[in-house]
Structure formats: structure tokens, C-alpha cells
Amino acid sequence: MPHFTVVPVKDQAQDRYDSLEGSTGWITGTLGRIIRTLSALMVRHGNHKEDRPFLNSADAASKNNDFYDRNLALFEEELDIRPKVSSLLSRLVSYTNITQGAKEHEEEERWSLAQEDPQDSQHGHSDGSLPAVSPEHLRCHPLPPTDMDCRDGWHHAVTPDRAHVLLLSGGAYFMISRSLGPEFGGAVGLCFYLGTTFASAMYILGAVEIFLKYLVPQAAIFHATDSLGGDSAMLNNMRVYGSICLSLMAVVVFVGVKYVNKLASLFLACVIISIVSIYAGALKSMTHPPEICMLGNRTLVRDRFDVCAKTVTKDNMTVPSQLWERFCLPGNMSSAQCDDYFLQNNVTEIQGIPGLGSGIIKENMWGDYQRKGEILEKVGLESVEVHGATDNFGMYVSADIATSFTLLVGIFFPSATGIMAGSNRSGDLRDAQKSIPVGTILAITTTSLVYISSVVLFGSCIEGVVLRDKFGDAVHKTLVVGTLSWPSPWVIVIGSFFSTSLTGAPRLLQAIAKDNIIPFLRVFGHGKANGEPTWALLLTGLIAELGILIASLDMVAPILSMALSFLGMSMCLALMFISSWYYAIVAMVIAGMIYKYIEFQGAEKEWGDGIRGLSLSAARYALLRLEVGPPHTKNWRPQLLVLLKLDEDLHVKYPRLLTFASQLKAGKGLTIVGSVVQGNFLESYGKCRQLSSIM
Predict the structure, then answer these.
(1) In whole angstroms, what is the distance from residue 444 CA to residue 417 CA?
(2) Res 110: pLDDT
(3) Is the dihedral of CA 222, 394, 324, 475 positive or negative?
(4) Are 590 and 528 found together in one domain?
């Protein structure tokens, strides 16, 4: 309800109005001053009119506009009265992205929350240290066949710790909720949180896969009992080691992010060296390309034999090679005891990385999607087809999953979404208003350059069958990008292993919980005395464990795409349905339910967001439209102002006035109920608040 302040005013001296002449002279002088003021205003603003319902503009051409001479705007566009160049330069110099009064409003709200829970009033670091890139955000994990994610180095390389700014913790959620309202912020923020949490599981699974496939294969706990049980044993190993790795990461994050930052420089160095080694390897491959063994046009698993030939010469005698023994009965040179395809085709070696000048990019320009179990074959290489089942299937490099455009987009897309990871730690930044925009732009620029140049290099240097070799079976079980790198494949392997994520998601959940827009999440807003999100970290670890129990990297990646794609609206909606249409539907249903839940709970937060501003503009537009012409009788609605008198206890003295007003308007129209509190508003503020709650 509106508040009115009544201030007593002393009576003016009456001697100047004792006579009729004195009164007439004073009235004439006052009217003269008013007329001159109005004339000056009409001269300046008489040619301006409003042609749009939401913005004051002076470039309208129509003189018969409905809004003419009924302009409610309280300002005039500077471009209408000043040269455009000087106006734009002036705006750039004096630009601030903090709306007047917004900072005070946020500080007051945070102060009230801090009064309820003193532990929650701690935000970020204030020691003035300059952290490097934390390892969880510098991801350089090779997704099959090759995939790098090294965006967020710029986020932390250019962003010092924060002391006190308007942009608090929460990053993207904070910006969306303050711009579009708590409903949109909560729905998008929770989806973003789930996506970031599953990202942690995906990076851990990638690190464990590198550990078991390339670093220490003998560390496997579960082993295949037959040739068909290898995948199941590998998934069980990834579950065990993934859970151990997640527990260790949770302990480190629980102790404090400052310890993560101390190791960030080391991890940043590993990632930068890994990227540089790829470009160096592209030049080195032109002189020392690795050889790939082919049987006909089929790619062979290279670590199953020593020499790429059917026979070898030993002591001036031709004897069967290890490759011969793989396809034929051991120690028997008879053709009848060998595989038909092996007998009909020759064994040859081709260059796996022929180099930039080979022209291989023409062959790699077009897609070649594989079915599960399909053998990788080189197009254009001579081969004699043999009908019937292949007896020695384990000797060939084959696809472990069915590939398609939608699947590959779902696997690759998460690597392009980490640009917001730096903003998730906005609570740890000293000047988030400056650091996040600059860091995000530099992260996007760096990532785009690395990705585009890497795609061109891979397509120009590497043979197609090697690119589609997921685990590097054709190059002695080495990562494909590791084979290209220089001086050693271990540079890529080690750089990829030291990159996982678990610090951004708990802080995002803590920011959502502290805003109290979803009541049942409020407990996750509490943390340690230094502001570390203890309870949020626990929930994040449990959700990430669900992703690790899935164990398959190719199955977790589409879930991550589903959760993060909602941020990009139209473009990312298409990516959601391309990656997995049923996951996309689930994500939209979850976001819709969260939105309606926050709306149902009331979401009594006033952040000056755009949705409420749009509602105000729409209401203003509707009121202006009502003044176009006289309303029809059936559209007329009464508008009543009821002034109620209060007693000494600030209770309504005559409540039946409201009943009478209700009878007058018959349940329609608009009724404004008010009262008058005598005195100064600042001194009577508490009384006004009490009166507002009572009425």
C-alpha cells in the first residue's frame, strides 16, 4: 500500500495579503513565473512525442500518433540533442554496469542473511594473492579420438581474488537470476549445476581411462575371463578407480581451494606444454612418420606381432612370422590351415602421419561413420573381399561403439562449454565485474584458435584410419594425439591426466541455496567459517559418483550436453536434441518444474530483473492504450481510493469501509487502500512497515 508523509508547515506572514492589491500582485507575479517556465519547456520539448510504448524516442514521423503529448518518460535520449560521436564517447568513458541503487540493495540483502547465519557472510579470498589456473578448469583430456579443453586458463590468469564487489558468488546463475528473475535463475542455475557436476564425473573417467590404458595397464583390478569380457572388466576398473579419485579430489577441495591454487601453476604448465608439443609434432611428422600395418585394406592391431610381414628370413631360411602364426596354425606353412582373407591379401605398411604436404586432408574431408564392431578399412587400398565370418577378429582395429553425427556432437560438445567455469568462481574474484568479461572473451578466443587449428592439423597430417582408432591400437596402444606430439607421447598423456574438476559446482549450488529461492536447498548454503561450501560439496560428490558408476565416458558426455545446452536457448536446443532427444526432453521438464516450483513458493526477491521491468513496461503500455478513446460501458471498471483512519495501536478504526468499497465495485476494478501517518517518513519508517503488515 502507498505511504504518505504529512509534514506540518508554518503559516506564512499575513501582512502581505491584508489588502486585495497585495494579494492580486502576488498571484499575478506567481502566475507569470509559471507561464514563462511552461513556455520555455514547450519550446524545448514541443516537437517531441512518444511513438513506442516502452522507450522515449524522438525520431517518429507520424503526427497522428496515439501517444502524442502524453509522454511519461522522465528522460530524453542524449543522441537526440547531442552529436552521436560525442555522446557515444561520453557513454564509454562514464560507463558503469552497476545500476544506481543496485549495490546498496544487494548489500542490504546480504547483510540480513549474514545476521541470520554469520558463517555465510564470508566470501572468497581477500589476501591479495594471484592464483593461477586451477587444475579442475584446465582440462586437456583427449576424448575419442582427440579432444582438448583448455579454455579456462585465461579465466584465472587474468582474474585476481576479489575483496568486495556487487557480483557475488554464483557466476552465471547470479547474472541470470539478477537479469531475468529468480524463476529463470533457479531453473537454469540448477541445470547448470547438474551439468557441471556430471562434467566432474566425465573428466575423472577420462583421467582413469588414461591411467589404465596408457600409464599403468597392470594396475587393473578386474581382468577379462574371455575375449568378450574386456569391456565389462574395464568398466568395473573405471568405477573403482573413479570413486577413489573422486574421494581424493573431494578431500582436497574440502581442505580449501587455496591448496588447489598452489598446484594450479604446475597443471597450467602441463597443459601449455601439451598444446605446444602438438604443433611441434605436426612439423616433426614430415620427417619421421610412424608406420601402420595393413592386411589388404584392414588395419591391424600393432602390439600383437613384431614384424609387419607374413614371413621372415632367419639363418638364410624363410620361416613364418608372428603375424602368420596369428592367422594360421602355429608352425604350419600349409595354406589350408590359414584364414582365407589372410591368404588372399598382402601385408603392407603405410604412413600413419604422412604430414602436412601429403594431401591427406582431401580424404579426411568427408565423414565415415562406423557400426559397432566394424573393422577400420582404408579407402582406396587394394583388397580381395572374402565372404563369410572372420576367424581372427581380434587382430583387426574395430569400432567399439556405433558412431554417428549426433553421437559425436554429444561427445565433443561438453569440451566447448567450460568457458563459464571461471565465472562459477566469481565469489573468489576481487573485481569480478572486470575479470569475468575479459576472461570469458579471452577463453573463447583461445579455445577457438586451439580447436580450429587442431582440427586442421589433424585432418592434414593424420591418416583417416588412425584418426578413427579410438585407443591407438594401430600405433602400439598410444594416444593418437600423443603419436603426433613431440618429443614424446607421454607429454600428452601426463598433461591429460592432471586435469579434472570439482570446485565450481559446489560454489554454484551454495549461491543458489543462499538466495533461498528453493527452500529445501537452504541447508546447502551453509559452510565453514571461511565460506567453503561443505554441504554443497557433499551433495556434489554424491551426484558425481552417479556419473562415475555409469563408467562409460561416451554415455556421460551426452548427459553433460543435455544439462548445459539449456543456457544457449535456440542454438543449444538444437544441440540438445541432436545429442540425445530423450535427455533433452528430461532436461526441459526438470527446468520447467523448477521454474514453476520457485514461482509457486513466491520467489519474493526484488533484484531489479528484466522480467519485472518488462511487466512494468507492459502495464504502462496498457494504461496508455486505455486513454486512446472513451471506454465502452461493459469495459468500465471503478477505481477507488479508500483512506482508512487508524487508532492508537495502528489498527483500522472503521474496517467496514472496505466492505462498502467492495460492494461499490462489485468485485471488479481497482481499489487502493491507504492511510496517513503524521510525521517525518524516516522517523516513522518502522511504524509504516508495521501498518503495511497490518493492513
Answers:
(1) 10
(2) 54
(3) negative
(4) yes
- Kindly report which listed range (94-103, 158-167, 298-307, 467-476) carries the lowest average pLDDT score: 158-167
Asked if 375 and 398 count as a contact pair (C-beta separation under 8 A), the reply is: yes
**433 and 385 in one domain?**
no
What are 640's three cell numbers?
477507488
Single-letter code of the amino acid located at 61: A
Specify if 510 maps to a domain. Answer: yes
Q: 650 in a domain, yes or no?
A: yes
Preceding peptide of 145 cis, ω within 30°: yes
Same domain, 495 and 541: yes
Q: Could you count the other beta carbons within 10 Å of the beta carbon of residue 53?
A: 15
How many structural domains comprise the chain?
Answer: 4
Q: Quick one: which of 534, 543, 539, 538 has its CA closest to 256?
A: 534
Q: pLDDT tens digits for 215-271?
A: 788 888 888 766 555 678 888 888 898 898 888 888 888 876 677 777 777 877 888
- What per-residue confidence (pLDDT) applies to 153? 34
Q: Judge if 675 and 543 occupy the same domain.
A: no
Within this chain, do residues 388 and 440 fall inside the same structural domain, yes or no?
Answer: no
pLDDT at residue number 91: 59
Q: Return the minimum-mean-pLDDT range out of 123-127, 400-404, 548-552, 684-688.
A: 123-127
Question: Do 274 and 345 have their domain in common?
Answer: no
All cell numbers assigned to 144: 575419442
Mean pLDDT of 145-172: 42
- Looking at 326, 361, 395, which one is the last position of a domain? 395
Sign of CA dihedral 244, 190, 406, 581: positive
pLDDT band at 534 (very low <50, low <70, confident <90, very high): confident
Residue 141, number of CB atoms within 10 A of its CB: 24
Instruction: Report the pLDDT value the prediction gives residue 294, as an integer from 0 to 100.
Output: 92
For residue 499, is it within any domain?
yes
Q: What is the DSSP letter of 318?
A: E
The secondary structure of residue 485, as a DSSP letter, is: S
Cα–Cα separations (whole angstroms), residue 509 to 522, 652, 695:
10, 45, 37
Residues 237, 325: one domain?
no
Q: How far apart are CA 166 and CA 102, in angstroms?
A: 8
Higher pLDDT, 89 or 200: 200
pLDDT band with cut points at 50, 70 and 90 for residue 293: very high
Place of cell 542490504: 108
Distance, first Cα to last Cα, the chain: 8
The position carrying cell 497490518 is 694
Q: Identify whether 87 is part of a domain.
A: yes
- pLDDT at position 124 is 40
CATH of the domain at 170: 1.20.1740
Alpha helix stretches (DSSP H) within 419-569: 432-461, 464-467, 480-484, 490-497, 504-515, 534-550, 553-564
Contact indicator for 267, 156 with CB cutoff of 8 Å: no
Residue 63 sits in which domain range?
Answer: 47-93
Q: CB–CB of 208/238 below 8 Å?
A: yes
Residue 404: φ, ψ to 5°: -155, 170
Identify the burial level of 361 via C-beta atoms within 10 angstroms of its C-beta, where 0-12 means exposed, 13-18 middle and 19 or more buried. Answer: middle
For residue 262, count other CB atoms closer than 10 A to its CB: 14
The DSSP bridge partners found for residue 678 are 6
CA distance 446 to 138: 12
Work out the mean pLDDT of the chain and round it to a whole number. Answer: 71
Give the range among 115-124, 184-193, 283-292, 679-688 with minimum mean pLDDT: 115-124
Q: Give the DSSP letter of residue 294.
A: E
Residue that is last in its domain, among 93, 118, 152:
93
189 and 298 share a domain?
no
Pick from 13-27, 182-196, 390-404, 567-581: least confident: 13-27
